[in-house]
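Internal ticket - ligand job 290, adenosine-5'-diphosphate:
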Amino acid sequence: MEERGSLKRDIAIEVKGLSYIYSRGLPYEKEALTSVSIKIFKGEAVGIVGHTGSGKSTLIQHFNGLILPQVGTVKVFGEEIKNDKKFLKELRRRVGLVFQFPESQLFAETVYDDIAFGPRNLKLPEDEVKERVMWAINEVGLTSEYLDRSPFSLSGGEKRRVAIAGVLSMKPEILVLDEPTAGLDPQGTEEILSVVKRLKSEKDVTVIFVSHSMEDILSLVDRIFVLKEGRVVVEGKIEEVFKNKEIVELFDLSVPDIFLLGEELKEKGFKIDEPFRDPLIAKKEIVKNI
Ligand code: ADP
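stdout (structure tokens):
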């Protein structure tokens, strides 16, 4: 697929003309998605934003076949999603979905067994299961000392990291996170964001991040899709979307103060090379002007 001049980029997910109606044919049917078409490229980090009820969860559940398309198509790594048991099993291994409040799905006696659940289901040999568990716990920033503990003895943020490790242990090529920082305190939020940042820097995982928090989105993703009443109403590079006052107003996007500060300083003649995505970038850019 040819994109942006001669630059070739592999597509991870391609959605075309996707519409979805809950309780179709019943008096209370509800159209949750209307003619959604998007492309997500391999290795990129994208954000999906929109108010509650705008269709974010419905859309992302199509990515690993939890919801099958009614109208339109969804292709993952070039293959159209189809209702075939074997296909869907493989798809769910390749596309890991971290649900909202994933810690509510922890169930095993130890952290180890929880993280090992997926790989054991794949019937991998126990030494490979162990290797994956060790890799995944490290990836979410916890030490192996946690492995023998009961998941229920952990803090909220730790539980959530264990739940994410359980998805990572499947070695997904696409990781979809639905509101992963919801309900966490600032420290827990920071921990989850650094897990996602680490994954993003490893480049081979495509990250799809659903969030209400524009601060989280700004610090993590390169492109965003804004959903409103089941339609994609805006898509683009995050700094371009946030800079567009008309769009920001029209779709009621709460652009983080830190980003606005960077733009304001630029207008005042400061030499700002990078959009202010987080306090570290802001500090670096401001220091250059002193
Ligand atoms: P978001 O994730 O952005 O909050 P959802 O995809 O959950 O949005 O919901 C989109 C619309 O579909 C909403 O109007 C919601 O009430 C409706 N909806 C979601 N799930 C169901 C369901 N299981 N049955 C009926 N309607 C649903």
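Auto-summary: The pocket of adenosine-5'-diphosphate is lined by residues 22-23, 30, 32, 50, 52-58 (CB under 6 Å). The first strand starts at residue 11 and ends at 22.
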